[in-house]
Design brief:
The complex is a heterodimer of chains A (275) and B (175). With 275 residues, chain A is of the alpha+beta class. Helix content of chain A is 32%, strand content 30%. In chain A, the strands form three sheets. A six-stranded antiparallel barrel of chain A has the order 2-3-6-5-4-13. In chain A, strands 7-8-9-12-11-10 form a six-stranded antiparallel barrel. In chain A, a hairpin with a 4-residue loop joins β5 and β6. Chain B is globular. Classes of the chains: A alpha+beta (275), B mainly alpha (175). Chains A and B meet through α1, α2 and β2 of A and α1, α3, α4, α5 and α6 of B.
Chain lengths: 275, 175
C-alpha cells in the first residue's frame, strides 16, 4: 500500500515536470475544456452585467449615470490621446537627431469582453470572448485605454486566455518615458510590478511614466504600462530596484482591446541606388 | 449518476468562482471553493466516486488557470486522499470535524501546491504578499469554510430528495 502510494507520487512528480516541458502536447485537450466551460462563463457574466446595467441605467439615477459614463469615456479617450501626443512629440524630436531605424507599427485592434478570471489565487490571467475565429493567435498584446494589461497565452476556437501584466510569469521590455532608460517590467502577482535590470546610472524618479519599448517583439512601442512608485538604490550592485504601479485597474476592466499585429522592425533604411 | 451530478456541481462552482465572485467581491483574498469541495468529498463521500470527479475538476482548473499545467490535477486528488485518510482516523461522526477540516484542507492544499509548483516551475519565487494572502485565506476559511461545507451537504441531500421524488412519480406514472 505504502509502496504503491510512493510510486504514484513519484510518477505524479515526473508527469508534472514533463507536462510543463512538453506543454504543446496538452494544448488540444485544454482547448476542449476551455471551449466547454467558457460559454457558461460568458453566459453567467453577461447575465450579471445585464442585470447590473438594468439596475444602474434604468432604475437608478438614469441621467446622472449616463453622463458619468460619457465623461469617464471622454476622460479615458483624452488620457490616451495625451499620451500618444507626448509620445509622438518625444519620438519626433529624437528621430530628427538620432534615429537610424524605422519602427513600423500598424495597429489593428479587436474589442473583446472579459468573461472569467483565473481560478487560482496565485496566478493572474483572464478569459476573453474572442478566439481563433476572430483572428487571435498566441502572443498578441492586450490593452485597455489606461494602458497595457497583458498578452494572449492560449487560444481556443472562440475564447482566449490572457496572461496579465501583474502575473509573476509576465515580463515586458519597458522604458522610462522621459529618460528612455530601459528595463524589464515583471509582475509580482500582488497587483504591482517591478522594473528589473535598470542600471544605477539612470536617473529614475517617483511618478515617472513607464512605457513599452517595443523591443520584445510583442508590444508596440510607447504603450503606457504604469508609473514609478518607489526607487531603491542599494550600496552595491549595478542595478536599482524600481516598483511600478500599473495604470490599468486589474480588478475592474470588463472590455479589452487586442492588438492584432505585433511590432515589426526594419533595418536601417538603405540609400537608394542610382538607376 | 452520482459522479455526473458531482462533476456538474463542480463545474457550476468553477464558473461561480471565476465569474460571480470576482464580479461582486473583487478583493476577496484567494477564495478557493474547489478546495472546500475536495474537503467535503473527503468527509462525506467514498473515494471511488469523488476521486474521478476531483481529477476532472482539477484538469478543468488547470486549463482555465495560467498556473503550470497539471498542478491542480495533482494537488486536489492528493488532498482528497489525505483528507479522507484523516477523517477515517479521526472518526467522521465527530461534528467538530466540520469546524476544523476546512482549515486543515487549506493547509494541505497550499502545502502541496507550493511543493508541486517548485517541481513544475523550479525558478518560481513566492510573490511578496504570499504570507498576508495565506493569512487572509486562513481567516476566511475558518469563518466561511464550515458554513459552505454544511451548504454543500444540504444541497446534496436536497437534490437527492428531489431525485427520489422524481423517480417515484415516474414509477407511478408508468404503473
Amino acid at each position: 500500500m505504502i509502496f504503491g502510494l510512493v510510486a504514484l507520487a513519484l510518477s505524479n512528480v515526473i508527469a508534472l515536470s514533463l507536462a510543463n516541458k512538453f506543454n504543446d502536447v496538452y494544448a488540444k485537450p485544454s482547448r476542449i475544456a476551455v471551449s466547454f466551460i467558457a460559454p457558461f462563463q460568458e453566459l453567467v457574466i453577461k447575465s450579471i452585467r445585464a442585470g447590473r446595467d438594468v439596475w444602474l441605467h434604468y432604475f437608478y439615477l438614469v441621467s446622472v449615470n449616463q453622463e458619468n459614463d460619457r465623461l469617464k469615456d471622454a476622460l479615458r479617450h483624452t488620457t490616451e490621446i495625451q499620451n500618444r501626443y507626448l509620445e509622438t512629440t518625444m519620438n519626433n524630436s529624437r528621430l530628427r537627431e538620432l534615429l537610424k531605424f524605422q519602427n513600423h507599427v500598424e495597429n489593428r485592434f479587436i474589442a473583446a469582453e472579459v468573461i472569467g478570471k483565473d481560478p487560482s489565487p496565485w496566478f493572474k490571467s483572464i478569459m476573453i470572448d474572442k478566439g481563433r475565429s476572430a483572428g487571435m493567435v498566441k502572443g498578441l498584446p492586450v490593452v485597455v485605454a489606461e494602458g497595457v494589461i497583458g498578452q494572449v497565452i492560449e487560444v481556443a476556437g472562440h475564447y482566449s486566455k490572457v496572461l496579465l501584466l501583474i502575473d509573476q510569469n509576465s515580463a515586458v521590455d519597458a522604458m522610462i518615458q522621459k529618460s528612455r532608460a530601459r528595463g524589464v517590467l515583471k509582475g509580482d502577482s500582488n497587483g504591482q510590478c517591478n522594473l528589473s535590470y535598470m542600471l544605477r546610472k539612470h536617473e529614475v524618479h517617483i511618478g515617472d511614466t513607464v512605457v513599452t519599448s517595443g523591443l520584445d517583439g510583442v508590444y508596440p512601442k510607447g504603450l503606457r504600462l504604469g508609473y514609478v512608485s518607489a526607487v531603491t538604490r542599494q550600496h552595491s550592485g549595478i542595478f536599482q530596484e524600481i516598483s511600478v504601479n500599473p495604470f490599468a485597474d486589474f480588478e475592474k476592466f470588463e472590455e479589452v482591446l487586442v492588438v492584432l499585429e505585433r511590432p515589426m522592425f526594419s533595418p536601417e533604411p538603405q540609400s537608394e541606388l542610382p538607376p | 449518476m452520482k459522479p455526473i451530478s458531482f462533476i456538474l456541481f463542480g463545474f457550476s462552482l468553477i464558473i461561480f468562482q471565476t465569474t460571480v465572485l470576482p464580479f461582486w467581491f473583487a478583493n476577496l483574498p484567494g477564495c478557493d471553493l474547489m478546495m472546500l469541495l475536495v474537503v467535503y468529498f473527503g468527509m462525506y463521500h467514498e473515494l471511488k466516486v469523488s476521486m474521478p470527479t476531483v481529477l476532472i475538476l482539477g484538469y478543468v482548473i488547470d486549463n482555465l488557470s495560467s498556473a503550470p499545467f497539471g498542478i491542480y490535477t495533482s494537488v486536489y486528488p492528493w488532498s482528497l486522499l489525505i483528507v479522507h485518510w484523516m477523517v477515517n482516523i479521526l472518526h467522521s461522526g465527530n461534528r467538530l470535524l466540520i469546524v476544523f477540516m476546512p482549515v486543515v484542507g487549506l493547509i494541505i492544499v497550499n502545502a502541496l501546491f507550493w511543493i508541486l509548483l517548485h517541481v513544475a516551475q523550479p525558478g518560481f519565487q513566492p510573490p511578496p504578499g504570499v504570507g498576508s494572502t495565506i493569512g487572509k485565506q486562513f481567516l476566511l476559511t475558518l469563518i466561511m469554510g464550515p458554513v459552505i461545507i454544511v451548504l454543500f451537504e444540504k444541497i446534496y441531500s436536497l437534490s437527492n430528495r428531489w431525485l427520489r421524488k422524481f423517480k417515484h412519480r415516474q414509477g407511478r406514472a408508468q404503473v
